[in-house]
Amino acid sequence: MKTNLEEINRNIYDIKNKDEYDFKIQKGLTREIVEEISKQKNDPDWMREIRLKALDAYNKLELPTWGPDLSELNMSEIATYVRPKSKMTDSWEEVPEDIKNTFDKLGIPEAEKTYLAGVGAQYDSEVVYHSMKKELLEQGVIYTDMETAVRDYPEIVKEHFMKCVPIYDHKFVALHAAVWSGGSFVYVPKGIKLDFPLQSYFRLNSPESGQFEHTLIIVEEGASLHFIEGCSAPKYNKVNLHAGCVELYVKDNSYLRYSTIENWSKNMMNLNTKRAIVGKNAEVDWVSGSFGSKISMLYPMSILNGEGAKTEYTGISFAGKGQNLDTGFKVVHNAKNTSSVVNSKSISKNGGCATYRAQVLVNENAKNSKCSVSCESLMLDDISKSDTIPVNDIRTDDVEFSHEAKIGKISDKSIFYLMSRGLSEQDALGLIVRGFANPISKELPVEYAAEMNNLINLELEGAIG
To answer: I need a surface site. Which of 26, 76, 245, 264 has the fewest CB within 10 A?
Structure first.
């Protein structure tokens, strides 16, 4: 049975506004460019020094020698800072009409009204809207953009910025630290539990540019938070770059869920870095959906430093024609009685390449720890590719560890059975794929599960013959 799923119109996600801006840095990456970004952002001296140190690291570090081919990325063709014609505001009515219309169509203001405790919206390199419910402010919760945090909470930022993810970690972390702009800062005080999520949405509009937002979240002892990150961009003919960084500090007995739906366009190189440090009896859960992007290299990481710390990763990627999505998860068990659960799924079609790449490290002192890894890959045709590349480094015998991997084509028998019950071939395929993705979508809030299912439907639209 031949299945040919054509590429589809990405609908609202491909909205393009005119490339208008208040300021756009010249293309390339030099000391002068980094110093100009620092000047434009009115950085304190300590932040400027971090940027220049990171630029030096970027120039010394080599490109990864494994994973997708990054040779098409040419930093001399990328503008690393684009300031839109908008100041940050807490009123949607004050956001410029074209930018507001984009976020309206993406459903962000409506989600804020119905579901969220706070919202941040970034357009190109700057946050243009930020708001949080009054009762959270009264409880001491801080939720703002990173520039405001650098200015208003310098001691907290200095203590944590690029400490969870050091600038020498890899070349694109160094790049991020040199040119970062925008992003979110969240501080949840001891014992405060948020009943509703916070969400930041990152929208890249300007062609031949990069987005380098920094997200820093600190959840103090006994507190809890659900944070949602959304991303999208329209398609252009030239490469765009996303190299954000997420640093999560989950203190003793606290809980953080970090949910992401990434829907970049298929000219985007998504080279993001996300990491959490987890304290005693604390837990961080990651829920991740990766769609769009030409290339993704994305491996969230949990470092379980406290006894009894836990982490769970639930993720899905969908690679279509011309896409190479190299994703996975990393976990380090550094203490006794820690546990991790990894549940990863990938779908590939029309020659797309989906790779699960992961690392599990259980150190000698992580006695009585448990780790369970499951990765499943579904290929929808004969020309797609799926690989599983796990690295498991277990340094103690006192551990429970399991790894399970399944890779296979969609079953012709399953399609035939559903068609015999009255479904069209297209509907049968959609039902099977959505069923495969259901363990991930059910972990998302209902509005975002609906968005993920919509993205899957968009990827599956087309002719079958």
So the answer is: 76
